[in-house]
Amino acid sequence: MQRNAGWKARHPWPGYAYTRPVPVPGGRSSRRFTPRVRKATMSNIPDGLYYTAEHEWVSELAVNGTVRVGITDFAQDALGDVVYVQMPEAGTAVTGSDVIGEVESTKSVSDIYAPVTGQVVARNESLDDDPSLINTDPYGEGWLLEIKVSDPSVVQGLLSSADYSQQVG
C-alpha cells in the first residue's frame, strides 16, 4: 500500500486522520476518516485589565494618567512566533481605534490599534532586540506601549475580562 502514502499527503481534507482499512464487498478496501479533534486551549485572561475587540489589553489607569498596552495571550497564540514589532516613538499623539503599528510573526502581519486617545510616553525598547517576549510573557515583559490618556473615562468603557473571555470563546 505504498502508493497510498502519496495520496494521503494530498488528501483534500487535511484535518482528517486515517484509520485502518475496512473490507468492502467486492474485495476492495476502503479507508474510514475520523476527524481530528483539536484540543481547545483556554487563553490566559487576567482580571484587573481591560480588553479591546482587537485583542489588546490595557492596564488600570495609573496615578499619572498613563496606561500600559499590549496584545493578549489569545492574539499572540493566533499569531505564532513574533519576529518583529513596529511601534510609534515616545511623544507621538495617538487616536483611539487608529492603526499605530504592527506585529509581524512567522504566520502573518497584524496591525496594532490604539485602544485610547492620548500621547505615547514610553515604548518597550526590549522588544526591538527580543520580540519573542510577546509570546513568552504577553502581560508582563511583552508589553508594547505606555500612553498618557486624554480622557480617562474611555478606559472604563473597554471590555472587562469576563466580556473579553466571552468574545474569544
UniProtKB/TrEMBL annotation:
Gene3D superfamilies: 2.40.50.100. CDD domains: GCS_H (cd06848). Residues 66-148 form the Lipoyl-binding domain. The modification N6-lipoyllysine is found at residue 107. Pfam families: GCV_H. GO terms for cellular component: cytoplasm; glycine cleavage complex. Keywords: Lipoyl. Belongs to the GcvH family. The glycine cleavage system catalyzes the degradation of glycine. The H protein shuttles the methylamine group of glycine from the P protein to the T protein. The glycine cleavage system is composed of four proteins: P, T, L and H. This is Glycine cleavage system H protein.
